[in-house]
Amino acid sequence: MRNFQITDETSPQLAVACRGLIRDFGDGETQTRVLHGIDLDVRAGEITLLVGPSGCGKTTLISIICGLLEPTAGDIEIFGVNRTSLTGRQLVEFRGRNIGFVFQQYNLIPSLTAAENAAVPLIIAGLPRREAIRRAEQSLAKFGLSQRIHALPSQLSGGQQQRVAIARALVHEPRLLVCDEPTAALDAHSGQTVMELLREVALESNRAVLIVTHDNRVFDFGHRIVHMADGQIEKIEERQILSPASTGPSLVAAH
Ligand SMILES: Nc1ncnc2c1ncn2[C@@H]1O[C@H](COP(=O)(O)OP(=O)(O)OP(=O)(O)O)[C@@H](O)[C@H]1O
Ligand SMILES: [Mg+2]
Which pLDDT tens digit goes with each residue over 200-255? Predict the structure, then answer.
């Protein structure tokens, strides 16, 4: 365990660099500062976990990193691009190329099949529907869901729905994957499967994976654990974790 320090190194492995991020909500007397100057690096090929009590600012921080919310002050570089300098369409395009999200409640569209759901980001990006569905099916297959491509979300288990959500988040091959509580609604076994997948995604594709979690079963999967409290980073733990090869067969194949 060590205290967090800002370094000046500009590593190609650096996916996200947040410097001095401040976020206020409200105006005048009701104004509250939710982020108090966050400095945070997220590296490629690693899983970074963001943990801390409810209300400490985790979702606010990742929403800013992903470009869903603007900071009141501070800078964010994502793969060397100053994300706060991007506006409107540029930001949407940058996000579409580089960032995937996974939310706690999957956010799948109930009337669409697994393959159609996973194809949504590609269809939005303008790919012909047939090609989008073909790539979505490939993405689902990677997550052990080739038998379920025609299923509606209501016909899938929670763990399967979350895997569809991960397949959707990765279908456009983003370099940064951000997940807010991806295992919160899952039982222990499904949660473990989802985390194994996310670890493979980070290690095999050299992606940066940033995960908000309350779930201490997830902690073993983090290369770094960033502890937040009251809108600040308290400490960062660097961990040695076992590679997938040394932890037995992947659970994915078993589903
Ligand atoms: N749009 C908003 N307007 C006003 N206050 C907000 C808004 N969004 C978040 N907050 C406040 O900011 C603080 C941090 O919220 P945030 O959702 O980032 O916490 P969190 O760490 O993700 O919590 P949890 O673990 O419960 O999801 C909370 O006090 C919340 O009430
Ligand atoms: Mg939250």
Answer: 888 888 899 999 998 888 888 999 999 999 999 999 999 876 555 444 333 333 33
The response to whether residue 229 sits with its C-beta less than 6 Å from ligand 1 reads no
Parent domain of 86: 14-26+34-254
Q: What is the CATH number of the domain that holds 249?
A: 3.40.50.300
- State which ligand 1 atom lies nearest to the alpha carbon of 53: 25
**β partners of residue 182:** none
The residues, any chain, with a CB within 8 Å of residue 221's CB and separated by 6 or more, are: 47, 49, 195, 196, 198, 199, 241
pTM exceeds 0.70 for this model: yes
Please give the tally of structural domains in the chain: 1
97 C-beta neighbours (distance < 10 Å), count: 13
Point out the ligand nearest to the CA of residue 38: 1
Q: Is 70 in the pocket of ligand 1 (CB under 6 A)?
A: no
Positions in the chain short of pLDDT 70 = 1-12, 241-255
d(CA 21, CA 35): 7
Is 9 domain-assigned? Answer: no
Does the C-beta of 31 come closer than 6 Å to ligand 1? Answer: no
Q: Please state the atom number of ligand 1 nearest to the C-alpha of residue 57.
A: 18
| Residues lying with their CB under 5 A of ligand 2, a single-atom ion | 59
